[in-house]
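Hi team,

Below is the intake form for Aldehyde Dehydrogenase from Chroococcidiopsis thermalis. Please confirm the fields before the structure is written into the shared record.

FORM ID: S-0412
PROTEIN: Aldehyde Dehydrogenase
ORGANISM: Chroococcidiopsis thermalis
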Amino acid sequence: MAIATINPATGETIETFTALSEAEIATKLELAQQAFEQYRRVPMQQKSQWMNAAAKILERDKEKFGKLMTLEMGKTVKSAIAEVEKCALVCRYYAERAAEFLADVSVGTDASHSFVRYQPLGIILAVMPWNFPFWQVFRFAAPALMAGNVGLLKHASNVPQCALAIEEIFEEAGFPTGVFQTLLVGSQQVAAIIADPRVKAATLTGSEPAGASLAAAAGKQIKKTVLELGGSDPFIVMPSADIEAAASTAVTARMLCNGQSCIAAKRFIVTEAIAEQFEKLLVAKFAALKVGDPMLPDTDVGPLATPSMLEDIDHQVQECVKVGAKVLIGGQPPAERAGNFYLPTIVSQIPVDAAIAQEEFFGPVALLFRVADLDAAIQLANATPFGLGASIWTQDATERDRAIAEIEAGSVFVNGMVKSDPRLPFGGIKHSGYGRELSIQGIHEFVNVKTVWIK
Ligand code: NAP
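The structure came back. Fields below:
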């Protein structure tokens, strides 16, 4: 994949970049290693100061960074600006809490004094996706850097300018040169970087094949990985729910990032008793969405990031139709638009045993399923290879508790949409990956948990 900025709303190539050569990568690795030798000794207070400075820069230039994201991958500018604000939040969160999360923990044993100490590992490689070009990077970098590691970013090839802008933010914030570097490289160059002995661990957010490939390369070198991969999150609506609130949130949860979010609600599992009502509301709300130029403040749904994302989602909808599903609204690109646009779409009556029902739909397409009761809802919720998030809408405490206990996912949200929050751990099980980002769990992923025993 060429490293280039191509406007998804128009198809226009704005700028292309040349991938780094082996020699250039070697120079950056050496710089990162040298930076780590100094940076690992920097006091927490100083790191907090730099991280807070990064937050200030993000807030100062949120419109500029937001527009850059919109230009490169097509999310609506209002959501892009909100994403930059959230990055500032995660920087401040770890600037404030890292000292507490990484403090020595005393443990009573047969020693005079024994304790656990958290120490940095060194260079961490982050392979990141284009769908949240800033947020995905900052939620890795803020805890990793506060823990004393140094970061190398291999960003998705379609967001090179975002990748370079993030490197500049850390530099301007005061972090020493080499503590955070962007590598403009293709995915085929990743395995060699992981194999370098100076790289100690890696994290990847992206698709299952990319995650498997990175984990295999890291496994060969006995290096730790964290994987945040795809999802096909269920959104269950029970009869006791506030149906209007559930339907409104369903639209937001599905259309997040023009439908291209790992934690977007993708399968709407609705009990028969309220299915008709929910379906009507959802169709009306989808019909009211404004599809168009993502740079305009009142646009609800922009284009998909690349022509191949558009091709994939259209193909998946056609596959649903082939196995007998009904398209309630949308189901094709809008006739009058260039760029990678797809109409907000609802597909219902998909046979639950069809292979297509197992797939992740990465675009503005909602899959609607009707079920008899909670047993059937939970069974269907768990019937995919994924296990990222899940949302259930109910006022019934027994139903709520059963969903929390029985849904196979990294998170369950009750009467709300799945979302990430710096204070809560984020990640999945099954093919959605392993490891956690954010919160105390996130900062503990890339540290040496050192046992100290003193007599
Ligand atoms: P992708 O193709 O996997 O790309 C993600 C990143 O991995 C990019 O930087 C890409 O580089 C790189 N990459 C691709 N193949 C690789 C390989 N074999 N070895 C090493 N690196 C490789 O994913 P995508 O299609 O852009 O993103 C969509 C997927 O990401 C969806 O499945 C979505 O659910 C998932 N996602 C998950 C989360 C989460 O937190 N769980 C968040 C966002 C997205 P190039 O761009 O150069 O190919």
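SUMMARY LINE: Residues 1, 127-131, 154-157, 186-187, 190, 204-207, 210, 213-214, 228-231, 262, 360, 362, 388, 428, 433 surround NAP (CB under 6 Å).

Thanks, M.
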